Amino acid sequence: MPSLFVIGGARSGKSRYAQQRAEDSGLAPRYIATAQAFDAEMTVRIARHQAERDARWQTVDAPLDLPHAIAAHAAPDRVLLVDCLTLWLSNLMLAERHMAAALDDLGQAVAGAAGLVILVSNEVGQGIVPDNALARRFRDEAGWANQRMAAVCDEAVLVCAGLPLKLK
Fold it and tell me: Which controlled-vocabulary keywords does the entry list (predicted)?
């Protein structure tokens, strides 16, 4: 089945675009959430995202083992919306996981999935150079991950100011 990579900056409309594409597919939607509510602000963000999805959606939490969640929930009659890749990368970094191996596993899971897989990610490399080593490492890891997932997916779309631009 095809796969779609959706990338954009903060508040670009990428999640809304990806959700609309999932709903328009006519397949049974599953939301694979990578966020973790470590503080009140993140709890509010998660609740807002949940409120934007109707009863058709089932949610799967996968803050660390995203490849397994994709493999376990993919089906020919289902669309998986993964939101988002950069939060997953943050979780991996905090857990001190091996990034390259995790990305290899994710690429294999997406490529081998039955049904449609939509990956959402943040473009974090178009701003200023971060002033600390951890933030620079995150920016670099996200850039490499975005390149790898855009290459794996059949289609890639950049969303800017709510407008989609097909890249691939």
Answer: ATP-binding, Cobalamin biosynthesis, GTP-binding, Kinase, Nucleotide-binding, Nucleotidyltransferase, Transferase
Residue written as token pair 């966020």 = 35
For residue 8, what is the domain's CATH number? 3.40.50.300
CA angle 56, 59, 60 (to 5 degrees): 145
- pTM > 0.85: yes or no: yes
Decide if 68 is catalytic: no
User: What is the extent of the structural domain holding 148?
Assistant: 3-166
If one counts the domains in the chain, the total is: 1
HSE of 105, CA atoms in CB hemisphere, 13 A: 14
CA angle 24, 160, 119 (to 5 degrees): 50
pLDDT in tens, 22-47: 999 999 999 999 988 777 887 787 77
One-letter-per-residue 3-state SS of 134-149? HHHHHHHHHHHHHHHH
Q: What are the pLDDT digits (tens) for 133-164?
A: 999 999 999 999 999 999 999 999 999 999 99
DSSP structure class, residue 129? P
Catalytic entry in 49, 68, 73, 98: 49
